[in-house]
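HUMAN: You are asked to prepare a plain-text protein record giving the amino acid sequence and the backbone structure tokens, both parts labelled.

ASSISTANT:
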Amino acid sequence: MSAAQATQDGDGPWDEARCIAALATLEKLQDQLDELRLVVPNLVAPFTSPQDSPQAVSSDFRRTAIALQKSQQVFDRTWKSEAVQDILAHATQSVKADPDLTKGASVQRYGWIDVAEKHQRPAKSKEKRSRGKGSDAEDKFDASAIMPAVNAFKESHPNFKVDVEEGRMITIMFKVSSMVLKFQVTCNVDPGNHATFMAQAK
């Protein structure tokens, strides 16, 4: 069972794959919570950085407030999701069965999203080979999936400003305190309609 399948199968056994998927889900939740910790600094940032006019301050504050509200809504949806509630229910039952949590101290806090993705790749590779495709196909990113991926990123990071030019040039901007960071991702599509990406800081 892949980590992705384990996440979707709420009634499946709590085997290694499902535990890894659960840890990845909690890591994503932690990332969203970390973003919410910056609510106050981000909210006051428009008043602490130079602005051209009071109207610019008001506009910047309004955009920031809306983005932060969306971040809160994303966190609320994730927290109330069936996947997270299943994890919390299982954790409660597990503690009742064995209150000794000393082994949990050795479990790393981050990196489970990457581990879950690595567990998912062999399943994808096997499925594609069974359809007569080469094993290298899993490393290809179909160009038609670019915009859905961008939209999913924008939904999970509503306080980021994401602009897309002709589906090939993606600009990502976000604030860290009073500093604005900007990245540009260039999408190159080959004749087989497979995309590769190059990212650079601006």
In short: Residues 6 and 162 are 31 Å apart (CA to CA).
